Every structure is written in C-alpha cells, then in structure tokens.
Automatic annotation (TrEMBL):
<dbReference type="InterPro" id="IPR036704">
    <property type="entry name" value="RraA/RraA-like_sf"/>
</dbReference>
<feature type="binding site">
    <location>
        <position position="122"/>
    </location>
    <ligand>
        <name>substrate</name>
    </ligand>
</feature>
<keyword id="KW-0460">Magnesium</keyword>
<dbReference type="GO" id="GO:0047443">
    <property type="term" value="F:4-hydroxy-4-methyl-2-oxoglutarate aldolase activity"/>
</dbReference>
<comment type="similarity">
    <text>Belongs to the class II aldolase/RraA-like family.</text>
</comment>
<feature type="binding site">
    <location>
        <position position="123"/>
    </location>
    <ligand>
        <name>substrate</name>
    </ligand>
</feature>
<keyword id="KW-0479">Metal-binding</keyword>
<comment type="function">
    <text>Catalyzes the aldol cleavage of 4-hydroxy-4-methyl-2-oxoglutarate (HMG) into 2 molecules of pyruvate. Also contains a secondary oxaloacetate (OAA) decarboxylase activity due to the common pyruvate enolate transition state formed following C-C bond cleavage in the retro-aldol and decarboxylation reactions.</text>
</comment>
<dbReference type="GO" id="GO:0046872">
    <property type="term" value="F:metal ion binding"/>
</dbReference>
<comment type="subunit">
    <text>Homotrimer.</text>
</comment>
<dbReference type="InterPro" id="IPR005493">
    <property type="entry name" value="RraA/RraA-like"/>
</dbReference>
<dbReference type="GO" id="GO:0008948">
    <property type="term" value="F:oxaloacetate decarboxylase activity"/>
</dbReference>
<protein>
    <recommendedName>
        <fullName>Putative 4-hydroxy-4-methyl-2-oxoglutarate aldolase</fullName>
        <ecNumber>4.1.1.112</ecNumber>
        <ecNumber>4.1.3.17</ecNumber>
    </recommendedName>
</protein>
<feature type="binding site">
    <location>
        <begin position="99"/>
        <end position="102"/>
    </location>
    <ligand>
        <name>substrate</name>
    </ligand>
</feature>
<dbReference type="Pfam" id="PF03737">
    <property type="entry name" value="RraA-like"/>
</dbReference>
Length: 233
C-alpha cells in the first residue's frame, strides 16, 4: 500500500434517517450545539446559486496535491447520489480545481449533494449561476494538473477542520460545518431542541419581549467596570 497515493473504495456510512434529519436545520444552529468549533474557514464560500435551503450529505473525502485534480476526477467516478465531495488542497490558491464541465457532471450525472473545495474554480460566471451547492475560495483561469498523487476516503483537513470519510457535511448560505459520524445522532437531537429555542428567541425579539438582562449579568460576573461618566483625556 502506497501511503499518499491510494484510494479506499468503501466508507462507513451514517444512518440515512440521521442524514435526512439535518436537512431542515440551519448550519448555525447545529454548529452552536458543537461548541462552535466545527465550521470551515470563511475563506471557503458558497459559489453556486442553489434553490434548496441546505446541502446535506456524506463526506467523500479527497486529498489532492496542490493544484492537481487527478484524484478529484476519480472521486467523481466513485461518487454516489447525495454524497458531498470535499477536497483538501493544502491551502493552494494558484490553480483552479474544477470548471464548468466537471461541476455539471457532478450535478447532473452523479447527482451529488454538493462539492466543497479548499481552492478556486474556473468558469466562475457559469458555475455561480447553477442551482447547485459548490463552495470554493474564489476563481482563477489557471487550470489544474492531472498528475497525482493523492488519496480518497482518508482523513483530511480543510478550512482548519478535520473531516473523516463518512462524516455528515452540512452547508447553507452561511458556510459549511462538519458533523462527526460517530456523534451525528446525538448532535441531531440536540440541534432540533436548540432550533426550537432559537425560534422562540426570534419570536420574543419580534414581539418585544426579549430579555437582555443577561448582558449586564455576564459583565458583572467578569468584574467589568461600568462607569457613569465620560472618558477623560
């Protein structure tokens, strides 16, 4: 086995009902139940124009050499309907990883739930208008190499967050979060309850009954000086 140049054909997958359960939840609510440490860097932004409120699917992880997409092509061949192809690119921004043809194949032929790239795309004008969840760091006309090596269905790191093959990837217009497969069921349960409380907070703001006393209570607990006067200089 050649570490750094290998493809694992199988993943351990979460239960389908758990995956479905996340489709009605905002990424922000789910992230809050995970101590807010699961979101990819804001450098990785939504590029497409999807109609669906969220992107939810199982991680098909891809590790490519900077600026190279040979393993990404292999991942496209392997992808199942509803997968999220998520690609580590070692932070490289010099070469695009995908263009219109590849993205159209992923969307229309393979019917993946979305694509998350740690790098740029090209054919930005066409891709940005697609009804499809694709995230990336920007665009460049410089195309990728197709030399390898790379890996598929191995642990990766993207946007400062680790991802295991089979983790659940949830994205919306805010960005992308990673839900560890091992804890997905309990995270789903906590997220549903959190979303209910969040909706109640919003309703209180709308009808004027929001209680903001917690702010001063928190500052008092932190020994903050509240001075009834002007700053003198």
């Amino acid at each position: 086995m050649s570490v750094g140049n290998r493809v694992f054909l199988k993943r351990d997958l979460p239960e389908s009902n758990v995956i479905e359960g996340f489709k009605n939840l905002p990424a922000a609510n789910v992230a809050d139940t995970m101590s807010r440490l699961c979101a990819l860097s804001s450098e990785i932004k939504l590029i497409g124009s999807p109609a669906a409120p969220t992107m939810v699917g199982v991680a098909l992880t891809v590790k490519v050499r900077p600026g190279d997409n040979l393993m990404l092509h292999k991942a496209l061949n392997m992808a199942q309907e509803g997968d999220v192809i998520i690609v580590s690119n070692e932070g490289d921004r010099s070469q695009s990883l995908m263009g219109e043809i590849m993205v159209t194949y992923a969307k229309s032929t393979k019917k993946v739930a979305g694509i998350v790239l740690d790098g740029p795309i090209r054919d930005f004008d066409q891709i940005s208008k697609m009804d499809f969840y694709i995230y990336g760091t920007g665009s460049t006309p410089g195309g990728p190499f197709k030399e390898g090596p790379g890996e598929i269905n191995v642990p990766i790191s993207i946007g400062n967050v680790p991802v295991m093959p089979g983790d659940i990837i949830l994205g919306d217009t805010d960005g992308v979060i990673v839900i560890p497969k091992k804890y997905a069921k309990e995270i789903l349960e906590a997220s549903i309850e959190y979303a209910k409380k969040d909706a109640a907070k919003l309703e209180a703001v709308i009808n004027g009954t929001a209680n903001r006393n917690w702010v001063d209570e928190s500052l008092k607990a932190k020994n903050t000086d509240i001075i009834d006067g002007c700053f003198e200089y």
